[in-house]
Amino acid sequence: VVLPYVTEIRGIDxxxxxxxxxxxxxxxxxxxxxRMHAVQGDLLTMPEDLIGTQAFxxxxxxxxxxxxxxxxxxxxxxxxxxxxxKPGGIIxxxxxxxxxxxxxxxxxxxxxxxxxxxxxxxxxxxxxxHSAVHTIFSNGFTKEQMQAMFATAGCKSxxxxxxxxxxxxxxxxxxxxQMFFAKGIKSTSEK
Length: 191
Prior knowledge:
Layout: E1 9-13, H1 16-28, E2 36-40, H2 48-51, E3 59-65, H3 74-83, E4 85-96, H4 118-126, H5 143-152, E5 155-162, E6 167-168, E7 176-177, E8 179-186
Parallel strand pairs: 1-2, 3-4
Antiparallel strand pairs: 4-8, 5-8, 6-7
């Protein structure tokens, strides 16, 4: 979707399988590693010698899609993403709107089952749960939470838009969840 509008795309993911898929699809699309490439890692713990490089700084745009609810410290991660933007850069977070109905306890633990082994993950899948359900820390975010995260990170909250219709999510008690798109703009002056 953004490819025609950007010169370089960098990705970071905790999952080696997702990074491999991302890079494989980029190569299959004929994109060089210089144009589109992902690395495995956690932005909160990656060494500065990797993320301190030009390849991971001064972005015009940072997009985090359907991942913030998997993060134990969402405020900290949003701040790290904003730190990577150039002044006036844009951050877009795509995730679920907060809902009281969720398979997540208040302390971030999944109620139905905790998946620690491949066998557990297969069982979770058999019950209609995604294999990553054990990594969920939040059942979504409100507009006010996103505005506060952006403000703390040095961004002006510019927009919070709901997807036109709910998405089907078989593992959710309601069978569907509402997605949002939140946009922030990094301050052009220092925090």
